[in-house]
Amino acid sequence: LIPLSLAVWGPDGRIRSVLDMEPCREDSCPSYDPEVSWVGAVEVNQGFFDRTGVEVGDRVRLER
Question: What is the pTM of this model?
Answer without folding.
Answer: 0.86
